[in-house]
Amino acid sequence: MHELSLAQNIVEIIHQHVHENDLHNVTNVKTVVGECSGVAAESLAFSFSVIVNNTPLNNANLVIQKIPFEVYCNVCKKKSSNEFGMNVCSFCASTNCEILSGTEMNIVEIEMFEQTKKNV
After folding, report:
1. Predicted pLDDT at 65
2. Biggest alpha carbon–alpha carbon distance for the chain
3. How far apart are CA 91 and CA 79, in angstroms?
4. What CA–CA distance (Å, rounded) separates 91 from 76?
5. Residue 99's beta-bridge partner residues?
6. How far is it, in rounded angstroms, from Cα 2 to Cα 106?
7. What is the sign, positive or negative, of the torsion defined by CA atoms of 11, 116, 59, 49?
8. Angle ∠(9,98,2) on CA atoms, nearest 5
9. In this structure, which of 16, 62, 90, 107 has its CB flanked by the most CB atoms within 10 Å?
């Protein structure tokens, strides 16, 4: 269950970007998680909620946007996706593809009360 350590890393990143006196104003932490990143979004959200419970970040929600796995085929020049994370073109079955998305996990925004946002 590496989601617990990932959630702890998210909390550390918040502490790096938000002054300690403002931590209670953090409302949403927006993240993007690739469908083939190996991260279980539900476990990550649960781990985050447990870590921030009874802390100044108690009001913070972890908002997770799932990103589909997409590849670009260097043979037929088309984008395609599959739910298995296989680097194979869905149109011509070529394996000469580049992964475009779906393996990432990033924090994209820390939203705070009073409409103050901090991009990371």
Report:
1. 97
2. 55
3. 9
4. 8
5. 71
6. 15
7. negative
8. 20
9. 62
- Sign of the CA dihedral 6, 40, 67, 28? negative
pLDDT of residue 117: 61
Retrieve residue 30's tokens: 């927006």
Six-digit token string for 55: 């802390």
Nearest alpha carbon to residue 24 among 45, 50, 46, 54: 54
Residues 55, 7: Cα–Cα separation, whole Å: 14
* Per-residue model confidence (pLDDT) at position 98: 96
Alpha-carbon torsion angle 37, 102, 88, 92, nearest 10:
160
Nearest alpha carbon to residue 78 among 95, 93, 91: 91
Q: Are 44 and 6 in contact (CB under 8 A)?
A: yes
Dihedral (C-alpha) 48, 83, 89, 91: value to the nearest 10 degrees?
A: -140
Report pLDDT for 83. Answer: 76
- For the chain of 120 residues, list the mean pLDDT of each consecutive stretch of 10: 93 97 96 94 96 96 96 97 87 96 96 72
pLDDT at site 14: 97
